[in-house]
Amino acid sequence: MSFFSIISGFFRIRQCVLCHGRALSDGLCEGCAADLPHLFTDSANSCPLCFSASIGGTVCGRCQQKPPPFEQLWASAYYEPPLSGMVYAFKHRADLGMLPPLVSLMRRHSPPWLPDAGIGAVLAVPLSKNRRLERGFNQCDELVRELGRDYGWNVLPRHTVFRRHHAPQSTLKSAQRRKNIRHAFEIKGTIPKDCNILLIDDVFTTGATLAELARSLKKSGAGRIYCWTLARSRLKN
Ligand SMILES: [Zn+2]
Ligand SMILES: [Zn+2]
Question: What is the pTM of this model?
Answer without folding.
Answer: 0.90
